[in-house]
Specification:
homodimer, Rossmann fold, 5 strands
Chain lengths: 146, 146
């Protein structure tokens, strides 16, 4: 069984990102793999529906800037070059799948709260990423209910 | 980030089990972890509902024997001692969670077809195992739609 060659760590920029990042760095290091980092900013009109005619553009811009800063903070911490940091916008699962395919990643690492029941039906990023992924997915358990 | 110490590979005994097992062996070897193997036989009355008064006991016994042989074939192939092979009966996700907790496993490895949409709603083992797991879960992509 060959090692993983290209690992894509999808992080949410909360403090829980650290667990995902630490695991990704450990896996990439033991497999001698190329490590990429991605964060997907979900447009506010996607998250809050498009029915209410509100202008989210200035808030969105702020979110984008904050996300950029955070992503680079994590990348620096993990010694990941800027060229391997990806800040995207859209539906997290679709964006992660698209990027992993274009990078030909063979492993996606994502945080998971281990939700079940209603929380699962409402959707989680780990769940969305797992389904439809064309490569292996490692769900790293995060959160206080660990 | 410490290595994984105890890995539980959940296999379905189809030819797809090989990919899961190969990955589990590679991970256990690189992390120097204890590797356990589990297969869960789903009782026919669970799979086919309990409303029809049918006696499945002889078929169930046959399934159990075949599962035992298959599990030991895979265990031998991967050099896993019998004491670390677990043949259980019940709901796959619940049984895998229970065993992983009693073993204090820190990683569960399971096969995933990457199903989405309706197939996801109907449930997959990877999905069931991911949700509610108290440790990390690695879903290894298997199947022709890889």
């Amino acid at each position: 069984m060959p090692n993983y060659r290209c690992i894509l760590a999808a992080i949410d920029l909360s403090e829980e990102a650290e667990a995902v990042l630490d695991r990704a760095v450990a896996m990439a290091s033991s497999d001698n793999a190329e490590l990429h980092l991605v964060h997907v900013v979900e447009p506010l009109n996607l998250a809050y529906g498009g029915d209410i005619p509100m202008d989210f553009s200035s808030v969105q811009e702020q979110l984008q800037t904050q996300a950029e800063e955070s992503l680079h903070h994590y990348a620096k911490r993990a010694n990941i070059p800027t060229a391997r940091c990806h800040l995207l916008s859209g539906r997290p699962d679709a964006q992660v799948h698209e990027l992993s395919e274009s990078l030909e990643a063979d492993l996606i690492i994502v945080g998971s709260h281990g939700r079940k029941g209603l929380a699962l039906l409402l959707g989680s990023t780990a769940n969305g990423v797992l389904h439809g992924a064309t490569c292996d997915v490692l769900a790293v358990r995060v959160g206080q209910d660990k």
